[in-house]
Automatic annotation (TrEMBL):
Pfam families tied to this protein: Abhydrolase_6 (PF12697)
Domain AB hydrolase-1: 4-226
Known EC number: 2.3.1.12
GO molecular function list: dihydrolipoyllysine-residue acetyltransferase activity
InterPro entries for the chain: AB_hydrolase_1 (IPR000073), AB_hydrolase_fold (IPR029058), AB_hydrolase_sf (IPR050266)
Key words of the record: Acyltransferase, Transferase
Organism: Shimia marina
Annotated protein name in UniProt: Dihydrolipoyllysine-residue acetyltransferase component of acetoin cleaving system
Length: 239
């Protein structure tokens, strides 16, 4: 069966997908760590979404993975949109999860400019824990919070600033109507990072896109309601 490639978001990493890897039935899971993040925190981070997309495609080619299903979360959703634009023939199914097509993130819990300023003032560790809390409906009290915060704490200050620059300077709006890959858009109805306007834009602009709204979830819906998230992925990738 076609492997499924997971691309994490800002301050994320491959370990956040362990619940999806453990539940995978009949397909191989490949979880990437973008340069500067997760298990690749020792690498220099890139400062463009296009750069992360090229790196991801090259990394998969190096691993001998030429055809795959693809899921991108948050900033990773921007990266996978770039991957589809560059190599549509390699991607069979696409999932855009908790993401959008506008990098300035209208309606985010705080502006990207504010995140940069606070990261410089507070330092990377405090920033990692503060922002990770916004990903969950129950914030620091959520079961998955500490695990995500630990992954986020691996990011250096330059990685955080580069990631924020990469998002702020990116837009995929003009290419949405050209996405021919079968696509599923997933959104938690209490997402503090990507409001409904971003999700609706993806759903309405990508031809024949399907939509899943996960109730009582924030930005990390795959950790808040993994049973629902995993069952939908299994269904979508088996079609």
């Amino acid at each position: 069966m076609t492997p499924v490639v997971f691309v994490h978001g800002f301050m994320g990493g491959s370990r956040q997908w362990q619940g999806q890897a453990d539940s995978a039935a009949g397909y191989e899971v490949i979880s990437l760590d973008l340069p500067g993040f997760g298990e690749n925190a020792h690498c220099d981070a890139l400062d463009s979404i296009a750069g992360y997309a090229e790196w991801s495609l090259d990394e998969l080619s190096t691993r001998g993975v030429e055809r795959f299903n693809l899921i991108g979360h948050s900033m990773g959703g921007m990266v996978v949109q770039e991957m589809v634009a560059r190599a549509p023939e390699r991607i069979l199914r696409l999932v855009l999860y908790g993401t959008g097509a506008t990098g300035i993130l209208p309606g985010r819990f705080e502006t990207i400019c504010t995140s940069k300023r606070r990261a410089l003032a507070d330092g990377p560790q405090a920033t990692a824990r503060r922002i990770a809390a916004t990903w969950f409906l129950e914030r620091e009290n959520a079961a998955g919070y500490e695990g995500c915060a630990a992954i986020a704490e691996q990011c250096s200050l330059p990685t955080m600033l580069n990631g924020l620059d990469a998002m702020e300077n990116w837009s995929g709006v003009e290419r949405l109507e050209n996405i021919g890959t079968r696509t599923l858009v997933i959104w938690g109805d209490h997402d503090r990072t990507y409001p409904w306007c971003q999700t609706e834009q993806l759903w309405q602009s990508i031809p024949n896109a399907n939509l899943l709204v996960m109730p009582e979830c924030a930005h990390a819906a795959h950790l808040e309601k993994p049973w629902l998230f995993n069952s939908v992925l299994k269904d979508f990738f088996s079609i």
